[in-house]
Write a structure and sequence with these properties.
CATH class of the largest domain: Mainly Alpha
Distance between the termini: 88 Å
CATH architecture of the largest domain: Up-down Bundle
CATH topology of the largest domain: Rhopdopsin 7-helix transmembrane proteins
Number of helices: 9
Low-confidence stretches: 1-43
Helix content: 40-55%
Number of domains: 2
Strand content: 15-25%
Oligomer: single chain
Mean pLDDT: 84
Structural class: alpha+beta
Length: 462
Amino acid sequence: MSASCERGAPVRSPERSAPRLGAGALLAMGLLFGSLCAFAQEAAPALSFGADALALNGPWKFQLGDDRGWAEPAFDDSRWESLDLTPLPGAHDGDVGLTQFTPGWSAHGHPGASGFAWYRLTLRVADPHGAALWLAGPALVDNAYQIYLNGELIGGIGDFAQAPPVLKASQPRLFALPSRLWRAEDGALRSVIAIRVACPSPGLAPEGCGIHIAPVLGLEAGVRSHYRQQWLEKVEGYAVDATEPVFFLILAVLALCMIPFEPQDRFNVWLAAALTLLAAARFNQPLYWLAGFETLGDFVLWRLSIVEALLLGAWVMAWRAAFRLQARWQVVACVALTAAYILARLLGTTLLFPALPSALVHGCATLLKTIHLGFLVLLVVVVWQGERRGRGSWPLRLSILLGSIGLFASELGQLGVPGIWFPFGVGVSRTEYAYAAFDVALFSYLLQRLWGFAGALRLAAP
């Protein structure tokens, strides 16, 4: 790829004590500088691929805002800032472990900025002699994008026909780059790629918004190979999320099967509700990120607002019933936290209510963290009161601890505990490990209760 001299480092102004140059000298220096720029641009090596593909790490030209004219190849972006998408060695995202991850624009001098932004890069490619050039789009973007080549839209993710755009999950995408959009230049092909990114609501994420994995350019075979590898990495990352709900539902059925033994105990009902909601929450992860039919607005409304709030409330109520606590204020506090959580989540993003003032959005996003912490405090109080009454057991304690590691992962992450590991090169999150152990611990606890019922029935038998 080549960069014009306009993209070089700015020329420093002369110090005040320097001798003043005449107009002729300045003109001669200007001509010399222009010649050097032209020579550098012509001599810049063109990209070549062979059977491989190259990540377009840049540095890209970057600008917040939105103007359709910024897609045109003749647009002067020399005053834009530079943004490098080169990942650090071993970099990955903190969710499923996607490699080649780089922070978004929030971590590049624009914390809290939302809306639109553009990335531009001038490409100079060795003549492929009739072979088609292809592009694997950025595999991870917050939250939607369109790709333009020499001013023409070639594709993207999300519906930009509406305002604000309808957002969907980032997925690997493959784009053919028409030869007519490349300009022959000194035995090479030249074009400008421009990527328009929409990020309506950055929330409080320190690395949010923008492109996180650079697009990849090359011949069809190399790009398709990279594209398949991106999909494989994504599917592997969500494979555990797709299998965990099965075990949660089995445990929920087991809990319901114990209702006839103790019809007055609400623990089994609350536990079955919590496990069903947990299964819905976990299964919605691969459903959203892999299936692609659910919008981000649907995900926020259903998964992050309603299901998550009800799950936290049912979780606390289940263990309150397990300890056989009767304090009415715990129920009131749980209901209040659940309602407040839904409201704060909905108002803490502009996806559903784009006209909300930014101060209200940021305030609700901050309040959401406090409410989430409130659920944790309430759970600790419930466990403490239950232990004071001598109603705890090790399977019960272990079930609460392991399940809470998954539900309160954000609080645990603030303590510096790694959020993801890579056994056999596949990213497995701390939450997935915790839930796997939780299944075993909870099964042991339910089995212990079931044996207790069996013993009681034997004693009651004539």
